[in-house]
């Protein structure tokens, strides 16, 4: 009796005192989900996070990346639920793909909300970003840092698009948030929702005429070889990424390791965002030239031309503001107006 009590006491003391005991709860490998792989800034960001975590935790936390949302059989819109349930340990995910579960995330998909990168940063790195993080945390997932997929530009196989009339009846693949259906319908086009994996054969076969994705995705996924000969730069939506960890996994790590994972996410997010914006800044617009070099007609719209699209999608903004929350949208608009 006395001995067993002693053993028990010793075990309890040890489990508090010895970090190596706590470490036994660590998994040999953690699964990180992304939609896009290492040919894209998004996937590079995921890999960089894993690399920095390994370094900062001296190998205690070992992350393997699963691109193509393969842990949910490619179904991007189920990714958030899988993170919550622990099927996925970590993710670098798009606000678009998680918006079916978290209605506030539709904020970033409101058409023509964020006119430039400063507007994006005013949201993600301001009080709106903090509020969004609270929403994610309330849903049982730990948010750590922001990244970026990028401004989503419009491509198609049929003709140059300069006005909404040019989109009339054109079939577009859109991502899995119903907000995109509303936007494309308001513009007179014919949207169809499908995953990114399904989009590529659909573009190749001509089942759909066009799609919308960032320039970096257009280039790395070689969309010009999938009949995409016209590209309109209209900057209607930017697609931020969020670095997150499953709650139980997070709780299983020591405080020091949690902070290491967070710092790694912040650094990887910063580097990833820079990469996602490369060649699309005021001083370097080389990406557009690269795409023209692929035989694609690139049309860059003036603010006045963009206004026509904006006008037609205003009812969509009004409708979805109710879903997202009028307060949050108002804050976002105010912070964008006040951006430096
Ligand atoms: O599916 C897309 O278009 C992509 C890759 O950009 C997202 O995951 C939002």
Query: Can you name the CATH architecture?
Result: 3-Layer(aba) Sandwich
Strand order across the largest sheet: 7-6-8-5-9-11
Overall body shape:
globular
According to CATH, what is the class? Alpha Beta
The percentage of residues in β strands lies in 15-25%
Q: Major beta sheet, specifics?
A: 6 strands, mixed
CATH superfamily: Bacterial extracellular solute-binding protein, family 7
Q: Between the first and last Cα atoms, what is the distance in angstroms?
A: 71 Å
Count of DSSP strands: 11
Classify the fold: give the CATH topology. D-Maltodextrin-Binding Protein, domain 2
Contiguous low-pLDDT stretches (5 residues minimum) are 10-23
Total helical elements: 15
How many domain units? 1
The helical percent reads: 40-55%
- Mean pLDDT equals 94
Radius of gyration: 22 Å
Q: How would you describe what is shown here?
A:
Helices cover 48% and strands 17% of the residues. The chain contains 15 helices and eleven strands. A six-stranded mixed sheet has the order 7-6-8-5-9-11, sandwiched between helices. A five-stranded mixed sheet has the order 2-1-3-10-4, sandwiched between helices. With 340 residues, the chain is α/β, with parallel strands linked by helices. Helix 3 (41-56) runs antiparallel to helix 12 (255-277), helix 6 (117-124) packs across helix 15 and helix 8 runs antiparallel to helix 14. Residues 35-36, 76, 94, 96-97, 149, 175, 196, 213, 217, 239 line the site of (2S)-2-hydroxy-2-methyl-3-oxobutanoic acid.
